[in-house]
Amino acid sequence: MTEGAATPDRKPTASLRLLAVFGVAGLSLSLSVVVGTIFLTNARWSVEEEIASAYRIASGIIEERSARFSDAPDTMLAAIELAREIDHLRHVAAYVTDPIGVVLSEGSGVPLEPRAAPEWFAAMLAPEPRLSSFPITRYPNILGNVRLVSDPADEIEEVWEDFRLVMPTIAGAGMVALAFALAMILAILRRLGVCRDALDRLRAGDVTARAPEQGLSEFAALAEGVNALATHLESEQRENERLQRRLLTLSEAERSQLASDLHDGVGPSLFALRVALRDAQVLALDAPPMLAAPLCEALGALQRHAEALQRLTRSAIASLRPMLPGDASLDEMLGEMACSFMDIAPSTRIEVVAQPLSLGEVVDLCIYRFAQESVLNAVRHGRAQQVRIELAPEAGPAPRRLVVRVIDDGRGPPNGVTEPSYGLIGIMDRARAIGARFVPPQRAGNRTVTELSLPLDETNRPPPSGATHPEKQHA
Ligand SMILES: Nc1ncnc2c1ncn2[C@@H]1O[C@H](COP(=O)(O)OP(=O)(O)OP(=O)(O)O)[C@@H](O)[C@H]1O
Ligand SMILES: [Mg+2]
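^ histidine kinase, sequence as received from the core. Prediction below:
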């Protein structure tokens, strides 16, 4: 296999739409996780810094002020006052205990729990708790301790407020990106869809299919490519049809020439032979009795052979050339053909329902041969008792088609399957040559229908409506 050749067996397993949805959703989620992690790591680090710095300041103040406790008139009161002041500072809490640890100060003395932030969030951000004790001394006694603890609750609250604002914003941005990506993908798929529809119609044989104009340059190039391909295919098909029609015309011309040669050459000679034989038969009557009887018998045999030869020649001429140009319209030719079947299938009733019509010699002959082969098949293979040939323009707006149907009441193709042989292949070749569509025999109820339809365009135009006559029936 050549490299890059199409591999029709390989079915596509991915859809661009799903890829885009999952891709953008995954990307938004990953982005949210990364931003959230960076945000939290950074927040944890700054909470730690803030707390450490506040703790350092508070420790410094307590150390400095506790050195002067002994000068105060009431040392414990001064210590409680100091604890209250420190307790008002951010990120720290302070309280006073007696030497055995009983809390003496009024302040909370206990670090606050964050109110709004959930526990898991506080646990992630909270730094290692810090606790220091500063002894309250009045020489020589230790009256108690000022205890200092770190209090990250308010800082965590602040971070939580920011977090609550940032994360929904990121999630919202992700949703917007997802919606935008989806809208883009749908727009792309819609534009690809119209090109694919045009290609599908081309593949189905409709070479007039074109992709509509596209506003975006990339799709405009694609549509142009599809349309260029369609135009090329259409011109190739037209050329092909023209050549086939030409071939058909030549072949019909040859057949017509053969028919003329037979008619003009063999016909008169056969006629002359029969006349001469008749004369000889008359003369033979006067021959001596010994000779007269065998002579008359031999001449009679010759006469019969000459008649058979004349019949054969006539039927060969009729088969080669069912009519002479301008002789008859299509419906009349079909009527003639139906009558000719009386010899082959006397019990079969063949009916022609058609308007007087002529679409030019070549097309008329194609339709004629289609009908002839279809009737023959119905009689031969289907054992039909009734065959109907219908010829009518399709109902509906222009451009219309002429539909020719041969409907028979026979048993239809064996197992419903038609294996084309010379007959159907010949019909198909002719149909292609005149741009017609052939539908091989198909069962429809208890009937078998074979159909040929062709566009009624400039090439195949029926006579003006004024020239048509009421529908005729031949049987
Ligand atoms: N109206 C019909 N009813 C039943 N069978 C049909 C009919 N038309 C076609 N067939 C089936 O289609 C086959 C192909 O038809 P086709 O005319 O191509 O070949 P054929 O008649 O067998 O031979 P020939 O080449 O001499 O025409 C037939 O053999 C027959 O089985
Ligand atoms: Mg046949």
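The longest strand covers residues 141-150.
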